[in-house]
Amino acid sequence: MLRFVATRLGRALLTITLVVTFAFIVLRLSGDPALIIMSPDAPPEALAAFREAWGLDEPIWLQYLKYFTAILQGELGQSFRDGRPAIELVAERIPATLMLTLPALALKVGLGIPAGMYAALHRNSMTDRVVMTFAVAGFTVPSFVLGLLLVLVFAVQLGWLPSGGQDGWRSVILPVIAMGLGGAGVLARFTRSAMLEVLGQPYIRTASAKGVPWGLVVRGHALPNAAIPTVTVVGFMVGSLMAGAVVVESVFSWPGVGRLMVVAVANRDLAVVQCILLLVSATMVTSNLIVDLLYGVLDPRLRGTAPAGGGH
Amino acid sequence: MPTPLITIRDLRVSFHGLPALRGIDLDVAPGEAVGLVGESGCGKSVTWLAALGLLPRTATVTGSVRLGDRELLGAPPSTLDRVRGGRIAMIFQDPATALNPVKRVGVQVAEALRLHRDLHGGAADAEVLRLFDQVGIPDARRRVHIYPHEMSGGQNQRVMIAMALAGQPELLVADEPTTALDATIQAQILDLLRRLQQETGMALVLISHDLGVVAEMCRRVCVMYAGRIIEQAPSDALFAHPRHPYTTGLLAALPDMVGPKRRLEAIPGGVPEPWNMPPGCAFAPRCAHATAACDAAIPGFVPTGPEHVAACIHVESLAMVPA
Amino acid sequence: MSLLSLDGVSRVYATRRGLFGRPVPVRAVDHVSFSVAPGRTLGIVGESGCGKSTTGRVALGIERPSEGHVMFEGAPMPAPGTPGWRHMRARLQLVHQDPLGAMDRRLTVAAQVEEPLEIHGIGDKTERRDRVAALLRDVGLRADLAQRHPHELSGGQRQRAVLARALATDPALLVADEPVSALDVSIQAQVINMLTDLQEARGIAMLFISHDLKVVRQISHEVAVMYLGRVVEQGDPEAIFADPLHPYSRALVSAIPVPGPRRIERVVLTGDPPNPADRPSGCAFHPRCPVAVAACAQVVPELRHAADGRLVACHLVPEASLLKAA
To answer: Considering A88, A117, A152, which residue would you say is the last residue of a domain?
Structure first.
C-alpha cells in the first residue's frame, strides 16, 4: 500500500515539474517581457536596466536554475508590473474563482448525474432522448458562446441579470450556468452509459431474482458499481476547479485567477504565469491522486490478490 | 400427480414480435426434481425468467403461471418481489459474474435473509454462517467477509446457493449451474444440490444443455426444441427409449464414455431462426422421418408410455422400428 | 518416427504475489514429455490451472520452454519471431475455442481463408481462389457463405471457417484448444466428425486439448491427463477411461455425468483445484487425494509404466518391471 501511494505521489510531483518547466520555456522563448512591459519605444538603456533588474539577461539555463531553486524555497517571484509577490496576487484572486467554480461543480454533479441515471433507467423512452439531446447540446456549445448568449438574453434583452463584474449574488448566476451546463451534459452522458453497462450485468439479474425491489436494486446494487467510472470524470472536474474558469471569467469580466492568467500571459508577466500554472497543476494532480486512492475504496477488486480458478 | 406446486399453461414469449417460447405446458410437483434440457436458443431459460417476471420490458409474455392458486404473470411488483427468493429461487450460470463484485458475500446473503425472513443484525449473521456451513463453504467465519473475486468458481456457486436457500424457497430453479465449472467441481456442486434437495424437501428445476447432468439429477426430464417441449418422460425411460426424433438425434450425437466407439450421428442443418419458423413441427426440416403431414400443424403430445409423451405424429410407427 | 515431441518441457512464469509481494515463480508446465506421430491424435485433458493450454502453446512454438526441448519434424523448434519460426507456421496451426475472436470482423470468410496462402506465397491468384473454394467444400461450408463476414455466420459455421483457414497451408500438425466447447451438441458432433474425416483424408496429426473427456475419448488415439502442470496418467484412452489408475484420473472420469448406469463409482473430491503459485509439496494432488499416504507429501512421483503399458505418476500404482520380477 505504501508503495502504491509513494509511486503515485512521485508521478504527481514529476508531472508538476514538467508542467512548470514547459511553461517556463515557452514563455521565455515567446517574447521579450521588457519590450511588452515598458513599450517598444522605451530607450535601450531603460530596457537593459529592466532586464538586468529581473535577471533576464542571464543565460536561460541559469534563469531556470534560479527559478527552480526559488520555487523549492517557496519563493515564486514577483510580478513585473507592480513588483508584488506573485503568490499574493494569485492568492487574492482564488476566492473569486472558487465563487464560480464550486457552484458550477455542484451544478454539474447535481444536474448531470441524476439526469444520466434517469435516462439510463428509462432507456429509449422519449425522456431519455430529450435528456440526451440536451446533454449533447450542453457540451458541444463552447462555454464562451453559451456565456455570450446568456448575457445577450438575460442581461441585454431582459435586463434581469448583470452582464459582468463581481457585484452581488445576482452576478454569479450567469457565469455559473455558462460554466456548469457543459459539464452537466458530459456527466449525464457518462453516467448514462456507466449505468447501462452495470444494469446489463448478470449480478443485477441475480439481485432481482433474489426478490430485491427494483428501487433497491438500482440504489444498492447498480449505483455502487456505476460510481466507479463516474468518479474518474468527477475527479477530472474537481481538478479543473482552478483552471476551468479562464474563458468564462473573461466573458464576464470576473476578477478571478483565470482573468489574471490571461492578463499575465499577454504581459509576459512570468512569475505570475508560473505561479498560476503551479497552482493549476497541483490542483489537478492532487485530485487525480485522490481519485486513484478512491478507486481502491470503491472497487475491492483493485485491492489485493485473486485466488485459483475452479472454472474454465 | 399430487397438487402441483407450479402450473405453467400455454406460456408464450416473444421479443420484438419474434417468438422465443411458443406454448409451454409444464407442472412441477412439490419436492420433485425436473430437468429441462435442450440446445441454445430453445427457450429453457426464458421459460423460468418469464415465470418470475425477470425478462426485459421488450418481451411480450402471455399465458399462465400459477404458484399454488396465485397467478404470477402480470402480478404487481410487490407480489413478485416476495415470490422471488422467498418461494421460488433461481441460480445462474457463471457465478463469478452473477455476484455483485463490490459487496462482501456475507452481506449479499444477509440481504436475502432481511427481505424474506426479516432477520437483522446478530440473528442474520448467525444464519449466514449456518447457511455457509450447509452449503459446504469451509472456514465460514472468515469467508463471510470476503469479496466474490477472492473465491473460486465453485465457492462462488456455493454462495449463490446459500443466497437462494436463505429465503427457504419451495422451488429452486438452477439455470446451467455447473456449466462454467470444472468437472470435479461440477460433481461437488451437483452432489450438494442433491443433498440439499433431500434435506429441505424443496423442488428442483435443473436447466442444462448437458444430458448427463440432467439424467443424474432429475426424476423427470423435458426436452425442448425451438420454444416448445417436444418430449417429457421419467429420466430412465427417456434415455433408454427416446421417442421423439430430436431426442434420438441428440443422444446419437453425444459421444459416449462407455461402450464401443462409434461415429457420431450429427443432426443435419441447424435450429430454425425465430423469423423463419416452419409452419408445423419445428424439427421437420431436419427430420429423417418427416412427411407432408408434419408441416400441417404443430404436433401435440402423444402418450407413448407411463408418464412419457412426445410431440410427434409419427411416434407410434417410429417406436416399432428397431433402433 | 514422431512428428512432434516434447522432452522434459517446463514453462515457468514469474509473477507477483498480490500487488506488492515478492516475485513468485509459477510452474505452469512441469517436466512434460510426449510425442505425436503423423496422422494420430493426442488428447490432453485436465481442469483449470493444469497447464494444458500452455503446453499447447509451447508445442506450437509460440512460447519458449523454460526447460526441455521441443522437436518438430526431427528438428528443434526455432525461437519465436525468427525467420525459421515464421516459415514453420505453415506446418503447424492452431484452432481454439472462440471462433469469433479468432477472425477479423472486417474481412470476409474467403479473404481470411486465403490470407495464409498469401503470406506464405503459395500459388498465384487463380490457384489460391480455387484452393479456397476446395477448402470450404472440405469443411462443409456452402460456397455462398464465403463472401459473408464472421458475425453473419452461426457458431458452427464460424468454427468451420477457422478450420478451413488452418488447413489452407496443408499443415502437418493441428493444435486444437477447446475447439468444440462453445458449440451445441449437434453442431459439436458435426465438427468432431469433420476433424476425424480430415485427419483420415490428409494425414494431419492433432494435439486435442479439452476439458471434455467424452469428446477427447471420441477423437484421440492416445490421451494424457494433466494436473497442476504435470502429466499424471498417459496412454490408451479406452484403458484410461474404462479403468483409471491414478486417483485424480479416477475422480475426473467418475465426475462425468452420464445417462444410464455408472461404470465407475463416483469419487467426489474435496476442496478446489490448487493454485499453481502455491504448489503442494511432493505429489501435487496429495491434499485432495482420497488414498494418499505419508510418502505422497514428500516425494514427487515419476511417470512410470504400469502393467498394461500406460504411464502413471503415482506412488501407489505398482511399476510394471517390479511386477514382472515378482
So the answer is: A88
